[in-house]
Write the structure tokens for this entry.
Amino acid sequence: MTAEQGGWEGPEPDRLYVITRGRSSPAGPGVFDLVTLIVSRAEPTPAHQPEHAAILRLCRSPLSVAEVSAYLELPASVVTVLLADLLDDGLIEARTAAVPAAELPDRALLEAVIHGLQRL
């Protein structure tokens, strides 16, 4: 269904197929999630396809995969394929979001709080 028919929003499916050269997922291991930060390591050249060039321009300062997807108005799955191409060519750097492991509070502290609350 096309946008004119009112059922399809965004780029046409066949255009997405062309953009990714028929691939539906990155060739290598999945290094991208929606919060992975992307930073350009090079400037776009006339030889780059338009979407690759747009990513390189957008990511001069760090952006998440979700932000790149939103700015380009492309599905995240398509953007991850394009990012994998750029990463393979060494044109971008991908930084995973560092989320510290959760630490449990000290048991003695919890017991002291419980005893204090019981005395109230």
Summary: The first strand starts at residue 37 and ends at 40. The radius of gyration is 22 Å. The CA atoms of residues 69 and 79 lie 6 Å apart.
